[in-house]
Amino acid sequence: MTQLTPPAPPPRFATDVITFYHPDFWGLDSADALRDWARDHPRDFWERVMEALAEAGVTGLELTFAPGDIDSALRAFGSAVSFRRALAARGLSVVSAFVAGDDAPDWRQSGNLPAIVADAERRAGFLAEVGAHLLVTGLPMRTTFGTRPPFFVDAAYMTRMADIAHAVGEAVSGYGVKLAFHTESNSTLWYERDIDLFMALTDPRYVWLCPDACHIALGGGDPVAVTRRHSQRVALAHWKDAVKPIDVELPIDETVFARQQPYMTELGTGIVDWPAWADAMSRTPGGDIVLVELDEAADPVAALRAGRAVAEGARACTAVDDHTAHSERPNQA
């Protein structure tokens, strides 16, 4: 008798709040104007974000840097519990929170460990109250190539980062929160070699991975291969597409994120193999959430719907392939 694996349940769709950072969506003329307006009107900001999420059929949310950060949510609703209730009233919930570099103590400063742990615990406490279980962070950025003295991402550097990651991961685990590392372009966790080295040096009980398909591809890597190699440590992933690998040495300064933008694109219009990625993700602990990341979409509702369609199509291909593989196996008595 042939035994078929039951189909996986449909995923939850989520997105990072950065999806809503395009000033055109707000009728404003610049990113600075949006930050200023959202700082002064946090409740209005969150109400519109929640309305757009519900309209797009996306139920999960990743908090990020201002204006869509933890402090903004607290200013708008007074407490994590009130924020959770406001989201739940629309069928929404927080999936994760992303720690941006400038919003947290610098991991390169050796004396910062107590402040780093305290900051992570504050965020983990909020996540626990709001019903989420993932804190996403990254490693420090590289320096511009050719800088003197040179900065090397070597075993000694990664060992220091692993020691900090262990301290932070252990601290947030007390809140029922997992610590996952994002593979940011031009950071010290960008190339496939960086990821493999860091994963090898960290304890899988305390340190998880959040692969970003776009950013890994921008570094010339294979996001599918990375996800398959580290499948049992993937707690969440960012589904995002890339035009091509970054083919120049970008200056690592305040302009680097804007310079990366032309290499990024909406799901299904770039070089990522989405059916293969969907298959790899289906075999990870984080495979039940599809976090579609669209940096600053002028029409976020339309962009999220389009991203969902690509992800659903990729998952459907995976389901068909799995069914075919099962049906081609000899019957088992």
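Above is the first protein from milestone M3; the second protein from the same milestone is given next.
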Amino acid sequence: MEREEPAAGLPLAGVRVIEMTHMVMGPTCGMILAQLGAEVIKVEPPSGDKTRSLGGMGTAFFPLFNRGKRSVVLDFEKAEDRETMHRLLATADVFLENFRDGQLEKQGLGADELRRRHPHLIVAGHKGFLSGPYEHRPALDEVVQMMSGLAAMTGTREKPQRVGSSANDIMGGMFGVIAILAALYQKRAGKRDGADIRIGLFENCLFLVAQHMVEYEMTGNKPRSMPEREHAWPIYDIFDAGGGERIFIGVVTEGHWQSFCREFGLAEFLDDASLRTTTDRILARSRIIPRVAEVIRQWNVAELSQKLDALNICFSPINRPEDLFADPHVLRPGGLVNNVTADGKPFRVPALPIEWNGSNIGEGLKVAPLGADTAAVRAEIDNEDPTSKAAGRRA
């Protein structure tokens, strides 16, 4: 695969990342670094990353999380390939891995060996758990959602429900990026040595449920799951609209309450002395919501969207992922970027959720065929000064 030069002006241009990861968490970290301009070289075994061949719900894993990377095949059964890996790391700024503790030691890439041979290197290990009693355990997104209480908050204690995406894996990769950027900033400030970073999937999920943990810590009340929660606003619900469609509406301010009632002919609520405050209305939800539902059924979602948008009231149709390919905001210029799979097929993906100097990031990224860059990268490291990284000249 032909080497792609990073787009001009991207902040991580000139940073080299060597990635040995699989599944979602580690590859997400590398994918974001690549979109920010880093050169990411994915090192794969001769058989390739196992997620290359996943089907079903895993079909998107490899192309989505490995866009914009170069692919190098190394066989660590061979001493010369293990040495090639070290030569490659000598030219790199960052090493990403997500293997169980102790596994990389068998391949000559343990923490002590890396620190001895590559003191400049930022090593980011994406693990199931941070250091502690569980550090030896493997983990999956679903495992940590069950352990952390997130599944019980999304569903109920009796019927826990995982979040409907690889939310923790993806967010774990994002925390990896945050830590790596902090380490790169330290080096820019003059720190010559690298950093040893560990990112925990379980602790990432704890971060997500911290609001519920702190609620219990501060009040002594056990947090109620999302389906069972007490409502903080009088109207914050999903309603049936005309034509069999559904819509979520959230009326969360006094001004919204006033304008919503006027727009939808609910003057009876405005004239009711028992509904003067938000607390009054929350306590009266049992009679407010059926009346609102009766009114909402008179319009379809398109009509409701126009009305609510004009009132600046929060709302949303109840979409499925496939519906978003027809959403006008998703289809705005730059909202979706066009990328290419390893076998040359185009696919669209949401752009990285930031704008950089007014532009979206990620257009035109390609997924490298297995080993497409092996020969080119070997030639490059043959021509690079292996002492430049140790001297800190790339940092």
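Note on the second protein: Confidence is low (pLDDT under 50) at residues 1-6, 389-395.
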